[in-house]
Amino acid sequence: MPTSQSIYLQKYRNKAAWAIVILGILIRLPLLPLPLTYGSDTWRQADTASIAHHFGVNGFKILYPQINWGGNGPGYVEAEFQLYTFIVALFYGAFGEALWLGRLVSLLFTIPTFILFYLWARRVVGTRPSLLALAFFVISPLLIRYSVAYMPEATVIFFYVAALYFFQKWMDEQHKLSLFLASVSTSLAILIKPSSIHIGLLFALLAIQQYGGALAKRRVVWLAVVVSLLPGILWYWHARNLYLEYGNTFGVLSGGDSKFGSLSYWLSPSFYLSVAELEGKWVFSGTGVLLFTIGLIVAFKRRQLLPLFGIITIGFYYFIVARYAQAEWGIQYHVYAVPFAALAMGIGCDWLLTHKRHRIGAGIAVVSIVATVAGTAYLYSLMLRAEETPLTICARWVETLVPEENRIIVSTDSLSLDQGIPNNYQDPTIFFYSHRYGWSLPADWHSPDRVEGFRQSGANYFVIYSKSLYDGSPQLAAYLESRSEQVGPGVAAGCGIYHFKH
């Protein structure tokens, strides 16, 4: 029977958890009204926002997400299941279209994520380490960045953490409802981001540790696997058909892009160094790596293997998506590491603060906490500096000078093939902010024949913002000189707008 002292202590710790959650909300509020132009995420947020816009104006057809760079077609695109953008579109319907609403929806998903993470961590490691883990989770620079981004990362991490919590609850209590909720959460995470499927490896490791091979004989487990996977299989089959019919894709399964690793990545030291650098900066905020390492060792000695299994799973996942995992423009792929990193950091910090044999431990913990907070504060200050980019400025010119119903070709400095690997070169920024539609032209397609083909398909204007790319394409420059009139500020000013002479 709990004593009055233990009840009081639990109430105190619950209040501390709520204080951390409230702090996490407050530090994110100043980021809500900022433009969608931070770091490498500008084009991703523009594509996401364009899908939400089209849901709102074209009848909320959730099975048919649309983008602006689909040429002269409707722009239906192979994409992940668009739950997040659909919810944003509903907000648009209620309050009017405003980009900060997309950030707000991400924040609304993040708040219950904090709570579920704390409940999960408390089940795994107890109350005191879980409070510290919650604090590290809340101030992780990567989680701050994406918890208010106009992107589905906050949504997917909510369902990911929910799956972790309900699966652990099922492991502890064996209630079928918990397993069902874990399966539904896993299913939604996979629908929103197919890369979430790696969570299945973690669940398998945990189940084998506790039950061995006997678990494979239970029908309820196989039913849970079906619930987790079947909706995603059906959706991505449908999404692939959209690509085959309309030719537009984000590279989810078909065409367009490849995020997968290969032997060349796995054998390259630069891959490991790049991943470590991104993790150290965005997940651990520098000195958090020390707390994390201590936490892993302590957890292993205590036979608390979940943090270790989590890191093994994330490491395997990085091998699969190596091309994106090693690049700054793929930093969102690291968001899955935050729950496991924060959990181990909480264990390590708690051990340093309470281990009687090492009086210096408390000092190390305090210094590490201060340094981690300082690292987060620095990255947070960068997030606050978001401002308009040259592309958004050019988009305003396009919106002003190009009649609304005219189709455009937009030059990009991305390649259709990156070192022989298919690449998503379509930059939606000018399309989205100008509210225009048309074709995206990769840097390795800058030839008169390519542009003429798009012109004959209905393009009325060509937009190019890179002077070096223009100067490096003399045949295209000569074609534009003879077949069009430059009506914009000009390539030297970062926005050449060429009106074709039909």
Description:
- It is a single chain.
- The chain has 502 residues and is mainly alpha-helical.
- It has two domains: 4-383, no CATH class; 390-500.
- Helix content is 63%, strand content 6%.
- It is built from 22 helices and seven strands.
- The strands form two sheets. Strands 4-1-5-7-6 form a five-stranded mixed β-sheet.
- Helix 2 (42-57) packs across helix 3 (83-95) and helix 4 packs antiparallel against helix 5.
- 47% of the residues are buried.
- The mean pLDDT is 92.
The helix/strand series, from N terminus to C terminus, equals: HHHHHHHHHHHHHHHHHHEEEHEHEHHEE
Q: How would the global form be characterised?
A: globular
Please compute the radius of gyration using only Cα atoms.
25 Å
Summarize the amount of helix as a percent range. Answer: 55-70%
In DSSP terms, counting alpha (H) and pi (I) runs of 4 or more, how many helices? Answer: 22
List the keywords:
502 residues, two-stranded antiparallel ribbon, 2 domains, mainly alpha, five-stranded mixed β-sheet
